[in-house]
Write a structure and sequence with these properties.
Layout (H helix, E strand, L loop, with lengths): L1 H40 L6 H8 L92 E2 L2 H5 L2 E3 L7 H5 L4 E9 L5 E9 L5 H8 L3 E2 L2 E3 L2 E3 L1 E10 L2 E2 L1
Parallel strand pairs: 1-8
Antiparallel strand pairs: 2-5, 3-4, 3-8, 6-7, 8-9
């Protein structure tokens, strides 16, 4: 009997447990369905904060900056110049030929080489008097900008004062001779200036040649009738029989 009681109670427990699970599942499904349907049917029942957060869209991006204004256009005003030449609007039927008289020649004027003109004569001067001779025109020669270049042979013939150069004692003992060529500028008064050695066979003779030539004098060289500075060369020869 005890076993029968246990077996009967076990079957009843299983049946009741099965129905209870089904009822619980259905009840839970209804609750979940109500939770889904209520927000769809009554959206005002939802909390305001959550609804605002779900429905609020992000703010739109700021508009782009306006484009820069176009550069100012500089208006250039073109001015047309009327040169007086216009194309004719109508073609004239008659064209008149205008003949201009030649201007009369100036009275008492002569033109060189124009023998056929009144008052003209060969070799005449424009604006001259008929039968008279024109004034002579003198063109002054250009003045030299520096000393005139004269050869040493020409300037040697214009020497008026001569001082013989001393012979170096050592060269005299050694029986040595030599030649010194000097570059010189002769002033307008004939004095020797700006001496410089151009060439020399022996430097021993240079100072003796310069000391002597500085004392030489020349006649002023005349260019167009006026004294002029002269650039030339002076040759001094040293020999035992004398010096030039």
């Amino acid at each position: 009997m005890f076993e029968d009681a246990l077996m009967e109670s076990g079957g009843k427990l299983k049946t009741r447990s099965k129905y209870w699970m089904i009822a619980t599942f259905v009840f839970n499904g209804l609750i979940v369905g109500l939770m889904i349907l209520i927000p769809l049917l009554y959206p005002e029942a939802l909390p305001h904060n959550s609804l605002t957060a779900s429905l609020t869209a992000p703010p739109p991006p700021p508009p782009p900056p306006p484009p820069p204004p176009p550069p100012a256009v500089k208006v250039i005003k073109v001015v047309s110049v009327d040169n007086g030449l216009h194309a004719p609007t109508k073609i004239p039927k008659d064209i008149k030929m205008v003949k201009e008289d030649a201007p009369p020649p100036p009275a008492g004027a002569g033109v060189a080489g124009m023998e056929g003109m009144a008052g003209g004569a060969p070799g005449g001067v424009f604006g001259g008097i008929t039968g008279g001779t024109g004034p002579a025109i003198h063109v002054a020669p250009p003045k030299p900008t520096g000393p005139a270049r004269i050869s040493g042979g020409v300037i040697s013939g214009m020497r008026v004062a001569f001082v013989e150069p001393q012979y170096p004692p050592i060269a005299k003992i050694a029986h040595m001779s030599g030649t010194v060529v000097l570059q010189a500028v002769i002033s307008k008064t004939g004095s020797v200036e700006k001496l410089a050695v151009a060439s020399s066979t022996n430097p021993m003779f240079n100072n003796y040649a310069i000391q002597a030539v500085q004392q030489w004098r020349y006649r002023p060289y005349l260019l167009n009738g006026e004294p002029t500075e002269v650039a030339t060369t002076i040759t001094v020869n040293f020999a035992l029989n004398g010096a030039d």
